[in-house]
Design a protein that fits this description.
Oligomer: single chain
Radius of gyration: 46 Å
Helix content: 55-70%
Largest sheet: 3 strands, mixed
Length: about 550
Amino acid sequence: MVVALLIVVAIIVALAINISSNIKNYRELESEVFKKLNFFSWNVVSYFDEKVIVKSRQALEKYDGIKFFKENKEKLVRAKSIIKRKNEITNILCEFLSNNEYKKHSQYNRLVIQINTVIKNARAYRISVTYISSAGNNLGSKEISLSQYDINKFDRDPSLLMGKGEYNKFLKEQEKEVLNQKQHNYYERVNKLIDYANENRNLLFIKGSVEQLDNLIAKLFYRTVNSIKKIKNINSEEWDIIQAFIAQIEKEIKAVVDRNQKILKYYDSPAFLKIKETCEVLMSTQREFNEYIVDKVESISQLFGTRVIRNKTINEDKYQYIRPYKKTITPFTAEVSAAVFASAENNPLEYVIKNFYPNKNLYPEQIQKLHLLVEELATLKEAKHIIDNYKKEYQQYINDVPDYVMMEDTEGFYSRLGFANIDESMLTVEYTFSYTSGGGMAKREFTVPMTEENIVDLIKALEAKLTISAFTKEQRALMTNKLREFIKKRDNFTCCGCGNSIYTEPNLLLEIDHIIPVSKGGCTIEENLQTLCWKCNRAKSNKMKN
């Protein structure tokens, strides 16, 4: 009996020792795994994440996740954070189970059981709902489990947590957001075109290309910017109309740029360089004449500072949806009222004087400049005729030039060969009157170009406003075409300086010179006029400057 008892005791002691050893081994294994997983314990996640108490059996039965988050909307963010953390823990543990160095450990199976328990706890966001009576008795409970998918469902469909009024408000805000995004997308299309135009504007050289680009951008603003903002329906047919219009403007703008680039590519080609080399040899005798005409064009263009330019932004957008597009304009622009604008349209010359010639003390000097401008423009017209004759003589050396070059950039082509380019539009001052309504929605402009006819009328109008003494002092005959031809004929179309004439040099440019310069009181009368060739006139001008 005693022996049997001793055996039982020994077995119990052995079992206790074994259990103690197993527990120690497990604790050591667990400690190592905690370090590896960066856990403090297995309580990294809880089974229940929220607890709710209801006061009726019916409330218990009907309670679900939607009701919980309707009553506790602020906890949706917390729920997302918890389910995210649980998913991270699950991934860490699953990765550990699939790949670790402890699988042969004697206590590994016990460890796996513990890990699977944690994974089970981390599978969902859980809400414990308990029905407790008014007397404090626990009469029932249930568990609500929400997966990551269930939590995300509230983001996908926010209406699940909304009342009817709140849901209708949400729909309107959502429609507004979609509409704003569509408007933004269309504004971006317009902005890309503006950026493209701004980047390429200074690279355009074909005559009229810049103006064409400016007009296209102006049309783009007029037809899109305000229209986009006015559309209130995401499904409106106006979107398709605007889209088609933007696409058409984009096509036309790129056509303008491509046309310039195509011709510029030709100017860089060996074919054009060969023509240029040939013409440079032939033009050696005409180079001085071309330089003289270029100098004259530049000097005339400075009479009124017409090349002083400023940038004008098309469409000042107060909402700043649209980036600015800047076009170059002359400084002679008057912003006027609607009444003045209408009057100026009916009597432009009078209002040109009121707005751009306000100081009578400057009339004598301004009249003198206008006289000079008329005379020089007449000279340049003759020079242009002579240059055209030279171009005809060069035709035999200009072969195989693409038709598109001569059609699009004739003047530019000859200018690159060394011919002087006389573009009368560059010499013309344009006085602009502009009216903009108070709200900025209506804008009108018209220009008064200072053609030769308008300049003559302006001179007469300014002289008429001078006092009698000043008028007498400034009065002199105007250099008309009739007077120019009379002086040349009188002098037998021969230079009074060197004796050269059109009989010996058919393309000789003859100019009418004031023997006593106008600046020193000389008048435009027969006795004070003589015919000089351009070389002698140039020499006289240089001598007077010195």
